[in-house]
Design a protein that fits this description.
Elements: H1 26-38, H2 41-59, H3 63-73, H4 88-97, H5 99-107, H6 121-136, H7 142-156, H8 161-213, H9 217-247
Biased composition (Basic residues): 34-44
InterPro entries: NusB-like_sf, NusB_fam, NusB_RsmB_TIM44
Keywords: RNA-binding, Transcription, Transcription antitermination, Transcription regulation
Length: 248
């Protein structure tokens, strides 16, 4: 369990723009801007997803609605709205549709004093993006999701945020690995069980076929002994019936 070293509730960011959470320190903003310029398209897509998730929680609306609204506004250049990156359009619906599972995975690694609803909203948004990648996007290596989540926390939140975000996300990654291992073990067990069942059925069919072609000599002798008397009794009767028919 990790206790975030967070500012007091009154000092948490209240503006719906998460980038304002780091305002107040010009040098920090300049460093963040420089790092952002060096980042690739995926990082910028994650950053945009954090913006949307933060705003959605602040406004208490569906983040997918905000994303679709931004995409529509971006079609008109006069609105000066940047298009929604393709990866952002995967993250936001992914977080929205799996929000309960994501929040539960994050919450178990926080303390009872610092529950999910008490930590800064920008930290929630950052960890939700990273947790979605750890839990639901197998294409992203865990080390990448962790690194990008920590970097987003250092850019958006207070100076101590990266440490506890790192600890929480590391716990989420460990749990995700364990869950994946359990699923793979169950899948292998099911496949093995199905294979053994198929082999047993196949062997039973082969045994039946062999039995029908090669009969046991003892069984043949028993069958002959049983059928013999019946054949000997039927012979005279049939012969007599035939003679009577000829005489008529």
């Amino acid at each position: 369990m990790v206790e975030p070293q967070s500012p007091t509730p009154s000092s948490r960011p209240q503006n719906h723009d998460p980038q304002s959470a780091g305002k107040g320190s010009g040098s920090k903003d300049e460093r963040s801007a420089a790092r952002f310029k060096r980042r690739g398209a995926r990082y910028k897509a994650r950053r945009r997803a954090v913006d949307i998730l933060f705003e959605a929680e602040f406004r208490d609306i569906d983040p997918v609605d905000i994303m679709e609204e931004r995409a529509e506004l971006a079609k008109d250049q006069e609105n000066q709205i940047k298009p929604i990156p393709e990866y952002t359009s995967q993250i936001v619906p992914g977080v929205a549709s799996n929000l309960d599972a994501i929040d539960d995975a994050i919450a178990v690694h926080l303390t009872s004093d610092w529950t999910l609803d008490r930590i800064p909203a920008v930290d929630r948004a950052v960890m939700r993006v990273a947790a979605w990648e750890l839990m639901f996007n197998a294409d992203v290596p865990h080390r990448v999701a962790l690194s990008e989540g920590i970097e987003l926390a250092s850019e958006y939140s207070h100076v101590k945020a990266p440490d506890y975000v790192n600890a929480v996300l590391d716990g989420v990654a460990t749990d995700a690995d364990a869950a994946m291992a359990d699923r793979l073990a169950a899948q292998r067990e099911q496949e093995q069980s199905g294979s053994e069942s198929g082999t047993t059925t196949e062997l039973a069919g082969i045994d039946a076929l062999v039995d029908s072609v090669i009969a046991d000599p003892a069984e043949q002798a028993a069958d002959a002994a049983t059928e013999g008397p019946e054949d000997s009794q039927a012979g005279p009767a049939e012969s007599t019936a035939a003679e009577n028919q000829d005489s008529v």
